[in-house]
Amino acid sequence: MAQPPFPCFAWRSEQPIDAQGLLKAFLQLRPNNQWVMIGDGCVQSNLQLWTAWSCASRRWVRKTSLARSLDAEFLRYLSGTHHVSEAFKRAGVRNGDKSGFVVFLPDAITIDESQTDCQAAEYDQKDIENQASSIYSELKIESIPMKYLLSKTGAIRLGMKFESEDEALTESTLLGHIVSSEFTS
């Protein structure tokens, strides 16, 4: 089933960023921990974002998450790791990045009594876009059109390993990396 566009917003900076300073300012500006800043190359597909959100939200709803916050649990899945600290290293903004992403994590609604599945609660897309715009303005970074691009460089940053230079990156392998966070340390 096709997913709607994930609330993800791309940004760029004229100058390489100071990661600690930008992240500190972002954490003070964001309305709540449903907003996450992600590093350059780490967002590669709409389905990747929905898969990481679904995995993280199911654990969050069941109260079995490994992280103390939904945003950290989302990064853990996106990074394909069992370790929250490693997730921040992989998917977080880094010194020298000149672009990245901000995502909004919708609330999750369980759709069955056993809480085995959930779906995104409705949200006001225009309001989310306005909030992202306001955050970007305060951070003095520029909003750019959202384009998804499969990138081995970004996948390696997320912790994926390739056996050879000829090995292809597909959306399926990216999704497998997310699911592998259940099994890998």
Question: What would your notes on this structure say?
Answer:
The chain is an alpha+beta fold. It has a single domain, classed as PF0523-like (2-Layer Sandwich), CATH 3.30.2380. It is 41% helix and 14% strand. The protein is built from seven helices and six strands, in the order E-H-E-H-H-H-E-E-E-H-E-H-H. The strands form two sheets. Strands 2-3-1-6 form a four-stranded antiparallel β-sheet. Strand 4 and strand 5 form a beta hairpin. The protein is globular. The two termini are 31 Å apart. The model has no long low-confidence stretch (mean pLDDT 93).
Keyword list:
two-stranded antiparallel sheet; 41% helix; single chain; alpha+beta; PF0523-like; 185 residues; 4-stranded antiparallel β-sheet
